[in-house]
Structure formats: structure tokens, C-alpha cells
Write a structure and sequence with these properties.
The protein is an alpha/beta fold and 461 residues long. The chain folds into three domains: 84 residues, 3-Layer(aba) Sandwich (Udp-n-acetylmuramoylalanyl-d-glutamate--2,6- Diaminopimelate Ligase, Chain: A, domain 1), CATH 3.40.1390.10; 208 residues, UDP-N-acetylmuramoyl-L-alanine:D-glutamate ligase (3-Layer(aba) Sandwich), CATH 3.40.1190; 138 residues, Mur ligase, C-terminal domain (Protein-Tyrosine Phosphatase, Chain A, Alpha-Beta Complex), CATH 3.90.190. Helix content is 33%, strand content 20%. It has 15 helices and 20 strands. The strands form three sheets. A nine-stranded mixed sheet has the order 7-8-6-9-10-11-12-13-14, covered by helices on one side. The longest helix has 16 residues. The protein is globular.
Amino acid sequence: MEHVFVRDLVEATGGKLLCGDPEASVARIKLDSRQVESGDLFVPIIGERVDGHKFIPQVLDLGAAAVLTSEHDEVPEECSKGAWIRVEDTKAALQDIGCYLRARLSLPLVGVTGSVGKTTTREMIAAALSAKYRVYKTPGNSNSQVGVPITISEISEQDEIGVIELGMSEPGELTVIAKIAKIDMAVITNIGITHIEQLGSRENIYKEKMTIQDGLREDGVLILNGDDDMLCSTKGKSGVKTVYYGIGSNCDFRAENINLNDGPATFTAVHGEDRQEVVLGVMGMHNVMNALAAIAVCNENGMTMEEAAQGLKTFHGFKGRQQIHAGARYTILDDSYNASPASMKASLDVFKTLKPDSRHVAVLADMKELGDKVMEYHHEVGVHTAGTGVNFVITLGEACHALAEGVRSVSDIPVVEFTDKDEMVSYLEANLADGDCVLFKGSNSMGLSAVAAHFIEKSNS
């Protein structure tokens, strides 16, 4: 934060300054007491298992400039360091601070949401925009009701445009986040079934995703995946410009001449009479779609498609998301960061184009948060897996039994199932052969990232 003082925080939250200097400057916002440094504001969040208020003495000893509290009406004698601001609810106060700081910013913000692909799309938009602008982007996965206010607080006066990720896991959450961010442009990547366990149906997910417009300025831009069956006919709210991207004829930004074979994707971007050759540093049709979203954002911010294409060349993915490791023994596609049915299918489609003459071994683990139809979705992915032409399937987890059955229902591809990760690793060590191409894909909680790392190291040893 720049030029923010304790008095500003009191004003933003409508709180009461219990003690401390109202003119003291505040540098950053921290939720984790272990990360507090001199000059920070510590916001104690009350969680299911831990109440952050218990760490207030600790953060003051570390030099925190200020703390919020909803549990004190006066300051304990032994803890009179720093500024104490009394608020009714620390989480709501953090959001109020986010709104206050957003109102002080004049730069345009692009908000990205969707069931899958938010983070990659955010990164590709930022890369494309960087060909012309100084870009701020959401760090890590700070896309929640507490993460977005902190994201807003970290935007500097030197930044010219921001790209922020807006997440959602429960009804009403995206509205709260969008109203904090007050975005100028909204991108919705797709409507899938991630979080269907909490939201009940794909239709409900669609309704929730559309609430990103609750924070979209009245004359803003809504950029939609025109190939998504639920977004292709969607129009933005009154006064908002709607732009579509995809390969369909209804799309304002289209991809033609797509080449996905054995390496980074290439295509021709088409917008009206303009055409631009695009060479990506990442694989897969889904990344062609992400690139089109980025090109659309750039166009709406005064950039040419040529400039956007130059910026896109700088994006090469990141750890755990379709990273290719060509070692001495194996070629590994590490996509272990997380998984949904849509991303699992996309990963398998990329995998089949990699090293076509090699044996392809798909190591697939359970997908989480899929609700009552969890087994049905896994079976569906199994059928898709069989159709990609992989040679061998290894599964980890109870839900993946349905995936294995899906493979067996339409093919005679060998499938070996495991519920114990260590047993699976031992099996892979004994059965992978030099020259194999191996995919690791599953929900983050299944721990495949460590397995992938183990075989990447083994391949290079």
C-alpha cells in the first residue's frame, strides 16, 4: 500500500481507534501472523479452528503498525504497542478496506472467473498486455473474499492496468468479491461443474458466475467464451459491451488454422478483417482459447493483435500445469496441480499429441468437489481417456474406480488401480520403461505433484 495511514483504515472500516498514532503509515496487509513485518496491518480472521485474535500480541512484537480487532473494547495493558482499531467484524472490515483502496485507484482492472482455466487465462492476459503496459496481476491464488482486498492493496501507482482472478466456491461469494474489485472488464472462461457440490447444478454455477457483473462498471466490457453452450447466447447487463471469443462463427475473436501437434500450439487469430499468426509457448486447444481471451482483452485496451501475440510469446506456463519435462528416461507431462472433468479431458487431449511414437501412460487420480454425480463424472472421463489413444492407465483413489470402469467399458487398454499412493509409486518404478511418455493429473489433495516430482528427478538421474 502507498500513502495509507492508520486514520485511513479507521475511515474505511468505520471503526474506532482504541490506541495508537492515527498518522502512522501502514505498508501491507497480512492475515498470517507468521508473515507479519514492521509496518504491516494485521487482520485477525476468525476461522473454524483458529481465531487470529490470539496472535495479536505476537504480531505487535514483530513490529505491526496496526491491528484490527472485533474482540476488544479496550487495549490490554501489556499490549499497548501499535494502533488498535475496533471493528464489528474483521473479515467485513478487510473488505471495506479493499473497497476504500479500490476507490483511490484510477487504473483499469480486468477480472477473470470461470469454472476451469482462471489462473492460466489470467497469466496469459497479463503476458499479452505486458507488450504495451506495466501490468499488475493477482499473486498466486489470492482470489477469495479475503484474498482480493489484499490483491487490491498491492497495486502500485506505477501499474497501468491490473488483471485479477475472482474465485467462487459458495453462493453470493462472487458478488462480494466483484463489488470490492469494481472491474472495468470481465472475462468468463467457461461454465463447468467445479464446486457443483456446493452449488447444486451447472445452471446455478452459471447464475453465480454471471454475478461478476455486480461489480462491473456500467459501461464496461463482458468477454465470454463463445464456444461454451451456456455463454454463447449470453448478453451483458444493460450498457455493457459483450464480446465473444472461440472458434465458432458467432465469435468476434476466432482461431483458425490451429496446429496442436507435439508441442506448443499455433493458430491464426481473426478479428474482422485483421489476421495475426500466434505462436504460443504452451500446448493444447484450451490454451488457444485462453490466448483468444487475452487477445480480446488487449484489443479492448487499445492494443493490436500483433502486440498481443508478441506478449503471449512470453508465457510458458507454470509448475504443475501442463509442464513438459523431457528427461533422459521419460517425457513427463506434469499437470498435477488440480483437476476437474473438463481440465482432465483437456490434459488427455494434449497428452496424446506429445511424442506420438512413445508409449503413453496416463496416471490419473480422483477429482474432488463433484457432488452426487462424482462417479458418473469419473466414468465419463474414463470413456474419454480410452478415446485418446493412451496405451496404459494407472489410477489412484476410490472415485477413480469409476474412471477405470469407463476405460474398460469401451476399450481393452490395460488399467491398474490403486488406493495407496506409495504402492502406486512402487508399481510405476517397476513398470515404467525408458522412452515412456507419462501424464500425472488429479486433484491437488491427491498428492500427485510429489509423485510427478519424484519421476522427473528419476528421469534425469
